[in-house]
Amino acid sequence: MNNAELVEHNKNRKIYQIAVVTRDIYRTMDAWIENLKIGPWTVLTFTNETMDYLRVGGEEVTEPYKFLIAISRVGDMEFEIIQPVYGPTIYDAFLNAKGEGLHHIKEQVSDEKLPGVLSEYASKGIEVMQTGQFDIDVHYYLDSAHKVDFIYELGNCPVYDLPADMYTIYPDPGN
Questions:
Q1: Tell me: the pLDDT tens digits for 152-174?
Q2: How many CA atoms, within 13 angstroms, populate the side-chain half-sphere of residue 41?
Q3: Is the pTM of this model over 0.90?
Q4: d(Cα 144, Cα 90) in Å, to the nearest integer?
Q5: Strand arrangement, sheet containing 101-108
Q6: Residue 45: closest CA among 11, 76, 68, 14
Q7: Which of 2, 91, 169, 175 has the most Cβ atoms closer than 10 angstroms to its Cβ?
């Protein structure tokens, strides 16, 4: 693509999230709060009982799994911290292979456009390595590291209210 084509292609795209993976979500949140003044954090627990489905490497995950995520917004950007707890996910595999740090960058793509965008990436040899759904939120992690040195995620990024018993706020707003 030439410059004009790139500008046209990218003018309506939205990078929605930057995410890191850690072994200790609370240590990482504390570091971000203390050093970067990023917070407060909405902390959620996802398990085989709370998600509609999780597929890793194209296979439905049938054994128990659990991971924690923390979300904070700075302007229009969402930051996510992920801690795997147990079960097969790409998060634990990433930690074992690379250690803590940048895991993925996420682009918001509408539900209508997702199939075509996924197909376009597949035609370039960039396949889905993990996908899952919680309520109306769907995500696709792309195995893009062999092409661009990081994981690229696509998701519909809906805005909706979470049930009060699904999350906590850190630090505790009462303190």
A1: 999 999 988 888 888 999 999 88
A2: 25
A3: yes
A4: 13
A5: 59-60, 53-56, 128-134, 137-142, 151-155, 101-108, 14-21, 77-86, 66-74, 41-47, 167-170
A6: 68
A7: 91
